[in-house]
Amino acid sequence: MSAPKADAIRRALQAGMSLKRAQERSGATMNYVTTIARQLGYKRQRPGKPRNEVLRQAIVDAYANHTPLAEIAIQQGSTVGSIKVLACRMGLSRRPQKAADLRAARKARVPAHLAADYRIIRRKNFSIAEARAMLGLAP
């Protein structure tokens, strides 16, 4: 390739343009553009980690406050789908705690000699975990 093309690529990369944009500006092949970029020590520009950490903290706070996903996405300039994916990767869930208690209680059986007492306690609007604790059963 010619020196003018190499100079055009260098100028474009030093001005902060992407490799694709430098290729369009110079008319060179992408292979040649990447060769020049390597010589310059060009690093691809990626989203910074501080932004990602801020987004993660915002998601944790919003999930704790039961903020709707659409509001989180609008505030952070992101999409609802990406918020869901990040939350899932962090192990966050929007399921209510009562539902989790019910699932756990279905798995753990109440002994027959305590079943009547258990039903009485539950009718008094105690949670499953509280009723099990009163009867001395594992939660």
Quickly describe the structure:
The chain has 9 helices and no strands. It is an all-alpha fold. The mean pLDDT is 80.
Overview of the structural elements:
- The chain is an all-alpha fold and 139 residues long.
- The chain folds into three domains: 3-40; 49-89; 97-134, no CATH class.
- The protein contains nine helices and no strands.
- The termini are far apart.
Tell me the β content.
under 5%
Largest sheet: none
What is the succession of H and E elements?
HHHHHHHHH
- Give a count of the beta strands, DSSP E runs of length 2 or more: 0
What is the approximate shape?
Answer: rod-shaped
Low-confidence stretches: none
Q: What's the tally of helices?
A: 9
What is the number of independent domains?
3
The overall average pLDDT, rounded, is: 80
Query: What is the share of helical residues?
Result: 55-70%
Distance between the termini: 73 Å
Structural class: mainly alpha
Give me the Rg, rounded. Answer: 29 Å
Features:
139 residues; mainly alpha
Write the layout of secondary structure elements.
Layout: H1 3-14, H2 19-26, H3 30-40, H4 49-64, H5 69-76, H6 80-89, H7 97-107, H8 115-123, H9 128-134
